[in-house]
UniProtKB/TrEMBL annotation:
<dbReference type="InterPro" id="IPR020846">
    <property type="entry name" value="MFS_dom"/>
</dbReference>
<feature type="domain" description="Major facilitator superfamily (MFS) profile">
    <location>
        <begin position="20"/>
        <end position="414"/>
    </location>
</feature>
<feature type="transmembrane region" description="Helical">
    <location>
        <begin position="273"/>
        <end position="291"/>
    </location>
</feature>
<feature type="transmembrane region" description="Helical">
    <location>
        <begin position="303"/>
        <end position="325"/>
    </location>
</feature>
<dbReference type="InterPro" id="IPR011701">
    <property type="entry name" value="MFS"/>
</dbReference>
<keyword id="KW-0472">Membrane</keyword>
<keyword id="KW-1133">Transmembrane helix</keyword>
<protein>
    <submittedName>
        <fullName>MFS-type transporter y4rN</fullName>
    </submittedName>
</protein>
<feature type="transmembrane region" description="Helical">
    <location>
        <begin position="92"/>
        <end position="111"/>
    </location>
</feature>
<feature type="transmembrane region" description="Helical">
    <location>
        <begin position="239"/>
        <end position="261"/>
    </location>
</feature>
<feature type="transmembrane region" description="Helical">
    <location>
        <begin position="117"/>
        <end position="138"/>
    </location>
</feature>
<feature type="transmembrane region" description="Helical">
    <location>
        <begin position="390"/>
        <end position="410"/>
    </location>
</feature>
<keyword id="KW-0812">Transmembrane</keyword>
<dbReference type="InterPro" id="IPR036259">
    <property type="entry name" value="MFS_trans_sf"/>
</dbReference>
<dbReference type="Pfam" id="PF07690">
    <property type="entry name" value="MFS_1"/>
</dbReference>
<feature type="transmembrane region" description="Helical">
    <location>
        <begin position="59"/>
        <end position="83"/>
    </location>
</feature>
<feature type="transmembrane region" description="Helical">
    <location>
        <begin position="186"/>
        <end position="207"/>
    </location>
</feature>
Length: 415
């Protein structure tokens, strides 16, 4: 097993991927996170494709992604305070169970033929409210079970499994929709959420829990998390740069299937081709994350973020060329650099956040960083309905602006 050497203060520690993977609780946590993300990925993909097929409306598809994410982002400060109060493990289990129940209710409503577009958007909005618990909870648990010098490796493993989900998620969702329809696909999603909650029961302490401050009112603790983020220059810089980049990613979620539908000219199935392209993107994302985890250390996280944002802006215009092949190539290159970007963002955020603030700040920071995604999906629906090429170029501009913001706003050193 190839190993990397990282400076950990007064000693030099060697750590490999196998060593991190066999650390207590890492494997069951990765399994639970993978199941939860598979369900989430299938939810987004299934909803977008079903809306495009059922309503023939890119705008409504974009709004579906908007409602599926934005409410959760807005409530993330309270979710972060709740996560610190009840514990990351319990919070993640709660979110997974609630998500499974809500998706099941959507399926029941759809089968009963009374699931209208406004009702669907409302249900997706409610679904998103507990999402920050899993988003922040999983990333809070990792620093509790691995030492600081293993952060990059643990995050690379986490992100490589997440990228693998980007392979299986679209393929599974596209195949299920094509074979049996959207309702059975969503029913499968509900079951996967429940399985994710059950698998997390295998993650047991003791954890390296940081000391907590005296308990305050939940809203006050949520506000303190926001204040901490705003006072931390690194977290502010990440929020500005990565949220701008997420506008680009949100545009792609809608623009890619629309581009596939236009370019295959009715000679193939949009669901299968779109799923294949996102799967290629996921494979390349996993490879990029693993490579970044091997070469990255505390001194290179910031520059990795800047370089990968520039690279994203450079490859996105390839998607504007009117060919399914060039779309696949462009998205493959995009996935490769995205893997490195995400490892850098996660590791730098964990390293420059004080342990006792990790739950609140991780949840708030992740949601603030992703706030651009619902904006991107809504914008992508409008742009793709007019010109897919313009949508890809706008996405490239957003990634370039993110690179500039990362260079200017993220300090070279931080606590």
């Amino acid at each position: 097993m190839t190993q990397t050497t990282q400076d950990t203060g007064d000693q030099t520690t060697q750590v490999g991927y196998w060593q991190v993977l066999t650390t207590r609780n890492v494997a069951p946590l990765l399994l639970s996170a993978s199941l939860s993300r598979l369900a989430s990925e299938m939810t987004l993909f299934t909803v977008v494709l079903s809306v495009l097929v059922r309503f023939d409306s890119p705008v409504l598809a974009g709004l579906s992604g908007f409602f599926l994410t934005l409410p959760g982002f807005l409530i993330s400060p309270v979710a972060g305070a709740l996560l610190d109060r009840v514990g990351a493990r319990r919070a993640v289990i709660l979110d997974m169970l609630v998500s499974g129940v809500l998706i099941g209710l959507i399926v029941v409503a759809s089968v009963g033929d009374w699931l209208t577009a406004p009702l669907l958007l409302g249900a997706l909005g409610v679904f998103s409210l507990t999402s920050p618990l899993s988003a922040g909870g999983v990333r809070t648990l990792f620093p509790m079970i691995v030492p600081p010098h293993a952060y990059a490796k643990a995050n690379a493993l986490d992100l490589s499994t997440y990228s693998a989900i980007e392979v299986t998620g679209p393929l599974a969702a596209g195949a299920l929709i094509a074979l049996v329809g959207a309702d059975p696909a969503l029913a499968v999603v509900a079951v996967i959420f429940v399985l994710a909650a059950l698998s997390l029961l295998a993650v047991r302490g003791p954890f390296t829990e940081p000391e907590r401050e005296p308990r305050k009112h939940l809203v006050r603790e949520a506000w303190d998390g926001i204040v901490y983020l705003m006072r931390n220059a690194t977290l502010r810089g990440l929020a500005g740069a990565y949220s701008t980049y997420q506008i680009a990613f949100g545009i792609l979620v809608v623009a890619v299937p629309v581009a596939v539908a236009q370019r295959i000219g009715g000679d193939g199935a949009t669901e299968q081709w779109a799923g294949l392209i996102w799967s290629i993107t996921g494979v390349c994302g996993a490879a990029g994350a693993l490579v970044a985890g091997k070469v990255m250390n505390a001194n290179t996280e910031r520059i990795t973020i800047i370089v990968t944002l520039i690279a994203s802006a450079a490859v996105l215009p390839i998607n504007a060329i009117a060919s399914v092949i060039t779309l696949g190539v462009g998205m493959a290159l995009f996935g490769l650099v995205e893997g490195g970007l995400n490892v850098g963002v996660l590791s730098l955020r964990q390293r420059r956040t004080e342990p006792q603030w990790l739950g609140r700040v991780m949840t708030v920071s992740i949601s603030v960083n992703l706030i651009g995604f619902p904006i991107g999906t809504a914008l992508g629906g409008v742009l793709a309905s007019q010109s897919v090429a313009v949508a890809f170029w706008v996405a490239a501009v957003c990634a370039a602006v993110g690179a500039v913001m990362a260079t200017v706003l993220i300090p070279k050193a931080g606590r």
